From TrEMBL:
Gene3D superfamilies: 3.30.420.40. InterPro entries: ATPase_NBD, Hydant_A_N, Hydantoinase_A, Oxoprolinase-like. This is Hydantoinase subunit beta. Residues 4-174 form the Hydantoinase/oxoprolinase N-terminal domain. It comes from miscellaneous Crenarchaeota group-15 archaeon DG-45. Residues 195-393 form the Hydantoinase A/oxoprolinase domain. GO terms for molecular function: hydrolase activity.
Length: 527
């Protein structure tokens, strides 16, 4: 039997689940997230193996959802000293590279940037020849500055990547084969500044991602899992190998929410609808489209930086199971503070001195927690009318984000997952505005880890084609073929790969009857 383990690290809990080759859930556990994250992962691995009785040698794949890169960007720590080379002089000199970046983040990565001659038109034709002598001179300067990582961004590189690839070759020759080099066409899509930002962020977190992957590998070894391939969840709800993640770590930054959305789809069989993931600190709301998270059509900000690589369309609200409840001027206030993973120490029901949303759900009588340390008697002094008011506030905050995430006025089905899913009373499932029905599936509290374990492998293409010399059908077939080939190259079983999304956008502001084609293909992982 081929077994795999899925692990998702949240702000409050780290979840682990073991699935067999027919996607049956053998066991699932929840442990506290630790401050160093890695020891919490080891705790979860050891516990799920112990409870399930599974021999670690039977595990053939381990899938991780991680927040390491997100935390590094937000907290401005452990970022690599990064240089940016923009290929686009003279036309791209008008806007300075990294101009919108917060000063502290620019300083954290070294704020080193260079412009060189080169770039292409949207048709793939050169605007101006690449000045290789100029690139080599820049590379020599970087060697003297102790650069740890390099990002390269050229005008319209998603259409023609030749200049980026030639720059990378020269930089590798001058700085050595071990220097990580991020090429923007491999990360982002059309849009120079956002793609450039995406490439630089990726280059900046390569170092921290490498350390995280090494820590995952050590945790697997310490848990006795010695014969399993390591995969990481990425933003679109699919998987990438550890080697791929070392090169493109920025694609993991929203893996937690997408794991929950994919897990919700698996647990319910639902292909289209709303997914609400209530964690310990926040509630995240996303949308399922054909079984995958709906991708954002807008530039997504990471650490206040605009990017344009694939990201799920999500809305977050600061209401989770550990959210602090207070009263101000007679009105109920939820958060923004949260006790997070310290709920079982600080929550009133556990003998602490902090009133949380979980305490409210317990006091109202519609939630039960199987923990001998949790005593509802500690909540006896809470005023019933205040408790009811807080429950209404929780529901109101949920309805607000549901309304924001919807693009259709019709009611939609909703799946409720996450450890904090007990905050919503079942008696209110039928009254939520904009919702046709609510499902809280079995194992709902482990949806994120399950989503990591069942995730598929994908390939994607996003490029501009000219229809002047090539027919529409031909370019669409070319894009489909490329997406399928990329999915297979990423590790998907060729027999299972299918196109799951195709988008065609006319570009009337460009000459040559231009059209932008985006195609995504996905298939089951070969184990």
């Amino acid at each position: 039997m081929v077994l795999r383990v899925g692990i998702d690290v949240g702000g409050t809990h780290t979840d682990a689940v073991i699935l067999d080759d027919e996607n049956n859930i053998l066991e699932a556990v929840k442990t506290k997230t630790t401050q160093d994250v890695t020891s919490g992962i080891l705790d979860a691995l050891v516990k799920v193996l112990e409870v399930s009785g599974v021999d670690p040698a039977e595990i053939r794949a381990a899938m991780f959802g991680t927040t390491h890169c997100t935390n590094a960007i937000v907290e401005r720590r452990e970022l690599a000293r990064t240089a940016l080379i923009r290929v686009g002089r003279p036309g791209a000199e008008a806007i300075e590279p990294l101009v919108e970046w917060p000063e502290d983040l620019r300083q954290a990565i070294g704020d080193i940037k260079h412009l060189v001659h080169g770039g292409h038109e949207y048709t793939g034709e050169e605007i101006i020849h690449l000045r290789e002598d100029e690139v080599r001179r820049v590379a020599n300067e970087l060697a003297e500055k102790g650069i740890e990582s390099v990002a390269v961004c050229s005008i319209f590189s998603p259409v023609n990547a030749d200049h980026e690839e030639r720059v990378a070759k020269i930089v590798g020759e001058e700085l050595g084969p071990d220097i990580p080099i991020t090429l923007s066409h491999e990360i982002g899509s059309i849009g120079l500044l956002e793609r450039e930002n995406s490439a630089v962020l990726n280059a900046a977190v390569v170092k921290v991602a490498g350390k995280a992957i090494e820590a995952f590998e050590r945790a697997m070894q310490d848990a006795g899992i010695t014969d399993a391939a390591l995969y990481l969840s990425q933003n679109d709800g699919t998987l990438m190998s550890a080697a791929y993640a070392r090169k493109y770590p920025i694609l993991t930054v929203a893996s937690g929410p997408t794991n929950s959305i994919r897990g919700a789809a698996f647990l319910t069989g639902m292909k289209d609808g709303i997914v609400v993931d209530i964690g310990g600190t926040t509630t995240l709301v996303g949308v399922l489209v054909k079984g995958f998270p709906r991708e954002s059509s807008l530039s997504v900000e990471i650490g206040n930086i605009r990017t344009n690589f694939r990201m799920p369309d999500l809305i977050a609200t600061g209401c989770g199971g550990g959210t602090v409840v207070s009263s101000r001027d007679g009105a109920v206030v939820l958060g923004p503070q949260s006790v997070g993973y310290e709920l079982s120490e600080k929550g009133l029901a556990w003998g602490g001195d902090t009133l949380t949303t979980t305490d409210i759900a317990l006091s109202a009588g519609y939630a039960q927690i199987d923990d001998p340390q949790c005593d509802v008697g500690n909540l006896s002094e809470l005023d019933d009318s205040f408790v009811r008011e807080v429950v209404e506030k929780i529901i109101e905050s949920l309805e607000e984000v549901i309304d924001k995430i919807k693009t259709d006025p019709r009611s939609m089905p909703l799946v409720l997952v996450g450890g904090g899913g007990l905050l919503i009373p079942e008696e209110r499932y039928g009254t939520l505005n904009g919702v046709s029905r609510v499902t809280r599936p079995r194992s709902y509290q482990y949806a994120n880890a399950i989503g990591a374990a069942i995730a598929q492998v994908s390939g994607e293409i996003d490029r501009i084609y000219s229809l002047e010399t090539t027919g529409r059908g031909e370019v669409i077939e070319d894009a489909k073929r490329t997406a399928v080939e990329r999915a297979i190259a990423a590790g998907a079983n060729p027999d299972t790969v299918e196109v799951v999304d195709l988008e065609e956008i006319a570009l009337p502001y460009l000459p040559g009857n231009a059209v932008r084609i985006r195609v995504k293909a996905a298939g089951d992982l070969v184990l």
